[in-house]
Amino acid sequence: MSLAEDGQPVRAKRLPRAVRERQIVDAAVSVFSRLGYHDASMDEISEVAGISKPMIYAYLGAKEDLFAACIHREATLLLEAVVGGIKVGQPPDVQLWHGLRSFFGFVGEHRESWRVLHRQSIAQGGPFTEELMAMRQRAISLVAAVLMRTGSDEGVGEAASVAGEPLAAALVGAGESLADWWLDHPEESPSSIAARLMNLVWMGFGNLVEDRVWKPPRDE
Amino acid sequence: MSLAEDGQPVRAKRLPRAVRERQIVDAAVSVFSRLGYHDASMDEISEVAGISKPMIYAYLGAKEDLFAACIHREATLLLEAVVGGIKVGQPPDVQLWHGLRSFFGFVGEHRESWRVLHRQSIAQGGPFTEELMAMRQRAISLVAAVLMRTGSDEGVGEAASVAGEPLAAALVGAGESLADWWLDHPEESPSSIAARLMNLVWMGFGNLVEDRVWKPPRDE
DNA sequence: GAGTAAGGCTACGGATGAGTAGGTAATCGG
DNA sequence: CCGATTACCTACTCATCCGTAGCCTTACTC
Questions:
Q1: Is A166's Cβ below 8 Å from some Cβ in B?
Q2: Residue A69 Cα, gap to closest chain B Cα (Å)
């Protein structure tokens, strides 16, 4: 238990429910990220949140519910960041570029969120996967829409239009694991990571080995 | 406890240690894959293996050791499959194609192995990640070597040679998550999955949206 | 400034599951 | 055929940790 300097037990200051809920989810994301779902104990989360355990149960329910709340909040934030980064009316490669930059920008600034979101929720399976699947599906649709827009503008080829969704899935997957890889190689900048993936998926190795690379437009 | 039809307790038949160890690891892979590291209990593994729990401890040590043994065995098998699938002396795109096909072929026939290897070991972190990292690094080096060979043959461009390793990392990552995606969309064939990734990383979207696709050579 | 609702706490029950102690039966070298 | 070795088992101990019962205490409300 926490004791003040005079040895008296410390009671947390009274705060409105909304604020506490935020603090609790913050703490939970941090602990889940560091220890994983199972090794994270409700006791530790409550300690990090600066509050006692029964409050978590009162506000956010059981451990599963708490975890689901984490997933949901972080997924929403991530998607908003990516959607917000894309400017309509641009050519598709530029849209893709901005989307990737927003994505890696978010992951770079919220590594803990990403760790919980991707690694943990995938590994747990069950009810958590659904939340993640929903987000991934939205991301895939987004990418597919960008590609299809190109198609309708310029008369897309048969192969691409038929395979739009799975290709988008592959790209989203590539982004996910490159982000994972990045967790373990944190020295790179978000833009440089985004550029790597952009070159890989837009130009392809076939072009890259002959030094034909993709470059962002002037205005960045 | 297991009882025979006459109500007598059943004692497992005596078998040499090597055989039992194999059975135990087989059972462990299956249970870890289905339930995840933490929810898998040693009791259930012993039951699936058709043997009692102390035998596991006697032969393979604690739960962590058992899991590490699973990772190690499956990783070795996977890498051997991929390396064995690549024929030297072929052009780089064909080598890549064969490597991808072997990879997805293995994952398709050993979904349980892949689930343990990738999803579980990544999520657990700690000592298990190392084993996986080592394997991934070997895969990355392999891919990088294929790309670099192209470079020295045809005078590779500055961008590609500088970025060889990270690009290979991105490709390996893309393969990993496409395999993960595949776990949840099992209706596709291994070749079709491999072809998707091949097109994505070799041709790039830039080509695909204009219907320029990559096709395997005549002899498959 | 009493009443009350909402924020906060300590301390425990109960389940689960890792790991072990200590003993029995089958095989093998002599 | 007889130790000795090795395979194998049942039945526990002990720690961890989720979730809750029951009880204070602070701050608005009239």
A1: yes
A2: 19
